[in-house]
Amino acid sequence: MCKQPLEGIYIQIVSVLTVTLRVFEIEEFECTNGSFGYDCTGICPKTCSDQCNKETGQCTCKTGFWGTYCNQTCSTLCKDTLCDPNSGVCVDCILGQYGLNCTDQCSLGCQDTCNKTSGFCNCKKGYYSANCSLQCSENCKNRDCLQESGICASCVQEKFGNFCKKKTVLVIVAIIVNKIRVYVQAVQKENTICTVITVVPKTVKVKSVIETQENVVNVKLDSWEISV
Question: What's this model's pTM, rounded to 2 decimal places?
Fold first, then answer.
């Protein structure tokens, strides 16, 4: 039933039973392209890719826009400014960004770009961890370490251990003294590999003598002081 009285041209039919029937000519109008609404006063948004719905004004959005009436702009962090037309979530991220709406930044240690969901990446030299946010130890030779653990590939001089934090140890073995020079024979211990080396110290202080031979004295280094 009509909610309001009809107006216009009509034919009135009156029966013998005093029942009156009015017959109206009803025309249905449609909005022209580019407009919508009850009286066609609504204007379709320019961000619609084609004609909007002539009743609701809803439409398919052009690239870079989203929302019921395509009046929302996709984030500039979206690759090619392309986002979901309903939610506005980026389809893909620009280089260097990741996350639900590309708001997170890839680590500086990432070689190129990172996974758009997790932020994981392949590391530049000198970085490690899943997202390359940690730096290899400065004691790693050439700052080269394993991405998974940060263990150094090799160490700089006088350092050893997985992360090259331990110092090389000199274990004094014996002192040989003659009339000409003083020699210190020592074991250089590094990564459990021992190398015998000989150095010439400037000063030596010895506590006890073990044995004496002609022109040679072998001593035990119970208490000593060496500067090289």
Answer: 0.53
